[in-house]
Amino acid sequence: MSVRSPGARLARLGPGGTLPRSALPELGWDDFSVALLDGVAAGQRVAAYFGVAGRPEVRGERTTHLHLVLADDQASTLFAGTTTIAGDRLPALTPRCAELHLFEREIAEQFALALDGHPWPKPVRFSPPFADLSGAAPSASPALRPDAAARARLPGVVDFYEVQGSEVHEVGVGPVHAGVIEPGHFRFQCHGEAVFHLEICLGYQHRGVERALSGGPDRRSVHYLETVAGDSTIGHATAHAELVEALSGARVPPRASAVRAIALELERLANHVGDLGALAGDVGFLPTASYCGRIRGDFLNLSAELCGSRFGRGLVRPGGAAFDLDEALARRLAERLDRAFADSRSAIELLWDTPSVMERFEDIGTVAHQDALTLALRGPAARASGVDRDVRRDHPSGLYRMQQIPVSLADSGDVFARAVVRWLEIQRSVVFVREQLAALPRGPVRAAARDLAPDRIAVALVEGWRGEICHVALTDGSGHFERYKIVDPSFQNWSALALAVRGGQISDFPLTNKSFNLSYCGHDL
To answer: Tell me, what CATH number does 484's domain have?
Structure first.
């Protein structure tokens, strides 16, 4: 079905977020750009924007198919459309829609396109482009045709933005960091301690996950998805399962939906508690830091009780869940959950009662409400700036269609707000998990596998602990993935970190960075 309201000329995705590809409107560039900009102006946001390599025409003209997914959170609706551009240039819409800024840079990098009119048209990951994103063998379709300069590009070997001035100095941090941490480079332009500008350079561990998924699903697919961001195993595995289920028409048993939701909230609990402990550690408040480090392990061990893996690997599978729990295990999990939460409350509430902690949390690393909207931030980072957005309510799937969790909001947009939102979400997730363990539906936890429908598009949105996880799949004529696109919440939220430190002191960067706790590998797909 096509719509002609804001976001006009785009197709509305049906139940389960799927549609035949033949029903996707193929728009000319002008209509496509108007539909995108009108939709965003009307309050929609870009959930995904990506390219697929076109086949050479008879005269050998190069083409790239662009696919767009807009999310209307108020109407709980997704819209999609596509356009084709010929040649090696992409007109940039970023000057009129800032949330496109990384999507357009990614498309240009992957398909060796020049970005016309983009304010900062640098590659996103600085690694050699994919050999092929169409699903065909690279020898059959050299889809990207990168030039020699693009092929030679390495992470970090690039010009950085510079602020001129006799007293301005530059500070480079990383990509190698102390301790066990993923690689990423941060380039600060400073005047004394004051930060004028931060540029974040990632791409050091680009693994080619999206390309590896082309031609699937197969036995490897779910394992790739579980390691997109290892601390978000359940979130990404759930998004993948929902895509496959939408494309195959599988009906997930109610008990499996409950088990998945429990696992997703346990993942949220472990990471939020760990983050609050890490924030305490960054300001030298050891009581909360040490206790939360241990309590995070308690929540991870609940996932291990459920499926044998502290990170939930092997639990979520297309069609349902690979593990069940009996009444005795449910009671044991509930008892351990209550103990872990009681310990969490004792440790975390020390933060709010300690003036020296509040002095370091308040008015540090602030992202204003309008900036959060403009950048289309995801998850706790958005909600800490007063953006009332949560996939569990706005685009519910599985158990969340029937069981709602109140959205947790703050309004100051600083380190304190991001910490408070985590604490509110911890309390509400504990209530939710306790209720589900006490009232698990009866029945199986797995539906029979089915083949995927050919020539369709499917979109899945899941509220991971960092925020919205978006997976998009295009199937070919045989029901295999022609293109699989992943948007981890970190992809959009890294820009907010750069904005949050602007005007602050460079010594506040570690604390501000930890208050976002974004994923390098979730960005470096």
So the answer is: 1.10.645.10
CB-count exposure of residue 410 (10 Å: 0-12, 13-18, 19+): buried
What tens digit of pLDDT does each residue of 241-282 get?
999 999 999 999 999 999 999 999 999 999 999 999 999 999
Asked whether residue 164 is assigned to any structural domain, the reply reads: no
Token digits of residue 17: 């977020």
Runs of H (alpha helix) within 92-231 = 101-110, 148-152, 209-213, 221-226
Q: How far apart are the first and last CA of the chain?
A: 33
Beta bridge partners of 457: 19, 474
* Residues 222, 146 share a domain: no
pTM of the model: 0.93
* Lookup: tokens for 32: 């496509």
Buried b (16+ CB within 10 A) or exposed e, 195-213: bebbbbbbbbbbeebbbeb
For tokens 């409107």, what's the residue?
25
d(C-alpha 34, C-alpha 38), whole Å = 6
Q: Pinpoint the alpha helices (H) of 47-205.
A: 101-110, 148-152
Q: Which residue has the tokens 């293109």?
A: 483
pLDDT of residue 59 exceeding 70, the answer is: no
Percentage of the chain lying above the pLDDT 70 cut: 92
Report DSSP letters for 234-270, one per residue: HHHHHHHHHHHHHHHT----HHHHHHHHHHHHHHHHH
> Does residue 426 sit within a domain?
yes
CA dist 522 and 518 (Å) reads 8
Domain that holds residue 47: 11-152
d(CA 258, CA 255): 5
Residue pair 279/415 in contact (Cβ under 8 Å)? The answer is yes
Helix (H) or strand (E) holding 198: strand 194-201
Q: Is the peptide bond before 175 cis (omega within 30 degrees of 0)?
A: yes
Paired tokens of 508 = 């506040």
Token pair 């400073």 is found at 190
Task: Tokens for 475, please give them.
Answer: 């199937």
Number of other residues whose CB lies within 10 A of the CB of residue 64: 24
| Burial call 133-165: b when 16+ CB within 10 Å, e when fewer | bbbbeeeebebbebeeebeebebbeeeeeeeee
Find all residues with CB under 8 Å of 289, minimum gap 6, and list them.
Answer: 277, 278, 280, 281
Residue 110 maps to a domain: yes
**Cβ atoms of residues 351 and 288 within 8 Å:** yes
* Residue spans of alpha helices (H) in 353-388: 355-361, 369-374, 379-383
Within 10 A of 305 (CB to CB), how many other CB atoms are there? Answer: 15
Q: Which of 217, 222, 240 is nearest to 451 (CA)?
A: 217
φ, ψ for residue 505 (rounded to 5)?
-95, 145
Of 491, 278, 264, whose CA–CA distance to 397 is shortest? 264
Same domain, 378 and 471: yes
Average pLDDT over residues 91-118: 94
Report H helices in 376-508: 379-383, 391-394, 415-438, 489-501
